[in-house]
Structure prediction request, 214 residues.
Amino acid sequence: MADYITQYTGVDADRVGLLGICGGGGYSLKAAQTDKRFIAVATLSMFDSGLVRRNGYMDSQISTIQERLKAASDARGQEAAGSEIIYAADAKLTDEQIAKLPFELYREGFMYYGKTHAHPNSTFRYTMSSLLDLMSFDAASNMDLINQPFLMIAGSKADSLYMTEKAYNLATNAKDKQLFLIDGATHIQTYWKPEYVNEAMSKLEQFFGKNLDS
Prediction:
């Protein structure tokens, strides 16, 4: 994105900010660690995709890491041999099944992405073989490389908050770092609930307005 946007007519390449939401927040952290074209960095409801694919949400699958890596390795071998591609997370859940999911993020996420705000071309599935890359990714490693102005926003009631707090605490060299909690918000509610969206936007406008101002 930095490569593209800095070549776009009218863009001031010296005033590029970076905002990542959910999984994009995790990837934004990794990008900002080394790419200093991003002069200010913010995340909203950051989700570390690699950490969750490796350890499970809230460390619920640590005991099965090697089994899942073996399944991913076998799937990669099957793909390389020209056989069928195996997908994970391909299930279509009923409302009753969604209600029984163990984590609030997943319950609200399945409703948000799968029903209330679903896109007809959207899917939850990903290739099983992609776990070989995902499970070795960690958004919060090398956080000491971030030296830009840094803002992390999350809901105070988000069960994903532990990922934001971990990354924030490791950003020991970030300039003017801020952790802003939206009181009462869950992870998914920060996407759509007007009062929470407005609160996040106000904070982001203030942050980027200050740090991207020439």
Notes: The chain has a mean pLDDT of 96.
